[in-house]
């Protein structure tokens, strides 16, 4: 073995080494001149996307890169036979254009070169792919080039992905030292499961770093500038980009076109899958994510984005509203040959309220909205800042530069609208932004122009010097291997993870019909209310058979009656909950007035959620500072588990009110890193805490529910513990998962000054009937053992539970 550092060299060897180094150096110099040949294969070369954007994007790539480090060949491919295919492709190539500042003769020359480098080929069989690869190799060899890499752009429907991927993987990979990049267009699945399946299949052919999933919104200039803007204006934004200063964020994409002509796609996807799950979510992430120190590091950007997904609060039905333009169902019947009676439930409009549970964004509403057949075409992101100003001076004297009276906002104007081009606008009363001077410039004043209701002169407004199509930007990023502008598998699955539960819950929702265009008026206007989003106008008459307009609570009086010899209050759910909340508040005020404290024990499960929300949002005189909250029962899971009753309480009540920490008394189900072990004496500990803090262990109010089997708290029929005896708190077994529970015992419940039993929903009808007739038989129906010894029992039942 030869080691140049340890052995003296023979003079002949020196000579040989010197020659070898010189050869290598010349090679290096040559390689520097030309870093290699790149073959770009556009699959679906005669399709719509290719015609509209991709060929132009490839031509732009050529214009940007020609004469630099690489040589190129462009292979348009499709299933069509060569002659016909070439004709179609040539049509797309005819309309290629150069930037307006390029001399026509130079443009013609480059276009000619590009055409000579482009060819069409039919790619149908495995053999066709092998031939393609051989042809590329032959060309590289013949022209004495080094192969740098191959790009395969899949502009084909997703059902074709797997076959093509298999062929590329088996016969079109370039040799060692050259890269492979495969580019996919959405849709990437229909929900989490299908996206996962597709990702797994593609993952069996390609490495993660080889795959580029396109979201063309990430190539829109104003969107692509969000992170660089945040980075370049760190100093000004550091203190502002958070919940203390941001009032709300709107991410909007309004379209005037409808879905006609592509209903077979649209019917399966709808607006949430088509636009919100991808374009608007990606933008949301760019606004909400923590800014990496180095925004030009793809890995750091992708990592931070993924972390931002983790902060998204789960969506539920109340987070979204959906609509459908009126002509949609007729179009669907026509295009899909559906029978006359067919009515689609596919939403063509959606507004969704998103919360990001991070220290930065907690409490800030992010509204995502998109729709077809609306009154204008415009896309923008608006970050609206809080404004504490109270202005005395008349508006005509306000100076946009300093006046705190004007709205303070940053708008990333994606395109169209009054402004009609991409722009970034910053209210003059915020700060003068810094943007890259070589590519962005201040917008000329256009008198009379207003942006989102404010004159353009209110803003520092910047636009790109040269407007570029999203695809040309993304093709350039693919070519340069800049992965931060694309959707990684983890990113894709995180997004579907977030959207799939909402999509499932909306599957049977009847969308609000809207006429479309200007006739829609304010029918789709939205309102943010607490954690919910709703239409601000009442539901008009539906034109498709929907659930019909249910009677409103105000149509009925609250019914007072007796049930099992105790007072019963019955009403429609909304009215019932507000009545119960008011009664609890009245008890609380009374207790605090007399004893300085209010001890409230609450049940878990789904029925009380609406009550918790009502208490949190509608009862501002509630003496929370003097209230102690106890749990009636708990599931033996960690307190952070979504199944934990304490979690429900935390999510729907505790996080919205100001209760001193030491007044919160979760059940100790998780001790010594195990759940509800007898030896850990959790039940005894809780009983001890109650005895120590609650006078006579007599709660001021205990809220119970009633199960369809007659259980209450976590006391189930035939329970060996908790139905009688001395124990105040017991461990029990539930027939439902999770089986192990901790519960207050009946004797303890019956010591309360007041017990309220909340029963809601049609499923409770049978047990309500049954329990109305039985005596006191807690072993069969634990609820029948609820009979406060000196306190009061009140039943709260909605009409469905009570009357069926
Ligand atoms: C596409 C959607 O991804 O984006 C279309 O499938 C939508 O439904 C389009 O019209 C909007 O993109 P752009 O670039 O026209 O705003």
From TrEMBL:
Keyword terms of this UniProt record: Carbohydrate metabolism, Glucose metabolism, Hydrolase, NADP, Oxidoreductase, Signal
GO biological process, one term: glucose metabolic process
Coiled-coil blocks: none
Domain Glucose-6-phosphate dehydrogenase C-terminal residues, every copy: 229-518
Family according to the record: In the N-terminal section; belongs to the glucose-6-phosphate dehydrogenase family.
UniProt-listed NCBIfam families: pgl (TIGR01198)
Protein name: GDH/6PGL endoplasmic bifunctional protein
Native organism: Heterocephalus glaber
Organism placement in taxonomy: Eukaryota, Metazoa, Chordata, Craniata, Vertebrata
Gene from which the chain derives: H6pd
